[in-house]
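Page 37, top half.
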Amino acid sequence: MKVNKSQIARELGVDTCTVDKYINGYTKPSTRLSNIVEFYPIIKELLSDESKYFIINVCFGNIQKISL
């Protein structure tokens, strides 16, 4: 029995190419892991409250030295 792709496409409101793609066994590609996953602990540490105060103090100290 032949599948009527045009009829299926009309009923679903999609293009016939989309129907054909799924009839032929399309599966969604798997998602890749982020390139920065290995750096999450470092990023988390840099964004912690203690690091914020340290970075602010260092930056503010450097700005004061430059402006004097």
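Page 37, bottom half:
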Amino acid sequence: MDTLKIFKDLKDMLIDTGIELDGNMMHAHEVM
């Protein structure tokens, strides 16, 4: 099963995006 690998890749993507959109991500978390 590659589930863990896929999850890790997704997490890395989210981290990369979070670096660019750190402020927006924090704001989204507050709204949710």
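Margin note: The mean pLDDT is 74.
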